[in-house]
Fold DUF6748 domain-containing protein.
Amino acid sequence: MKLFLSLCIVFFISFCLAEENAMIRPNGYYSVSWEDIRCFRAPCPQYVATKLNCNDTKNILSINLPASLKSYQNYLTSNESNSVIFFGNISPSPGFPKEASDFNVIRAYKKLPLGNTPASTDKFYLFSDNGIRCIKAPCPSTKAVLVNLYGQSQVVSSIKQPYEANVGSLFDSEWLSSKTVRSDDNGLIGQGTIVNGEVVVSNSYVRLPDPSSKCPSLPLLKCKANNVVIFTRDENRCLTSPSCTDSGGCALFLPICPEGYYLDSWRGAKFGCNGYHCDAYFLPKTHK
């Protein structure tokens, strides 16, 4: 009899734990939409999370951000969440465990402004190097993996981004390229269609924070008379490689960036003149 009761208790506990765990969805990638809904009573979910490349949706009450993303909160919640992808899990909301769900964010990705209108055939991809090396082009050295469907991937030869054409020559293509094909978790998510071995990207979502780590301190450099210090901006948007150059006159023309981008400038050209790039509005400046 005691053995029977013990087995019953173990079964009951296991059943309860299984039920509790079933309420917490495993980690996945989700797009988020927000609407300013007004309710007569709580809870009042204003978000809808949609699992990428799937038809699975869930109403969300709150977005829980990790400490590393708190400074980006204004770019990731409310109306701004309509251009965001979150990686994380959905769990019962502590205040309303039976009525509402929260999204617990592990990683966040923000859509770059001025992409293209998505095609009906677009899907969401992560990109990685497949290790293939060729003597001549085209060389299918990149693997495009369907987000949330990791068993489904395709080898591609190139990835075509829309931003240099849409934003202009001051868009930092080197920065974007460094985020496209990665072996770590800092790569972007591309929304696009594969055509004849090429991924035609409509929109790219870059991981935040950016840069992923603080820019290194610059060494002090003293230049001789009539010289000035100039810098280069690397693929992380950090200033680096200080050097000396002759000082001289600079053009007073100031470039203009399109909507959704701001002008970043630094002393980086001949005669100590400014270098320029147009950075997305949600990216913080990396230098003074």
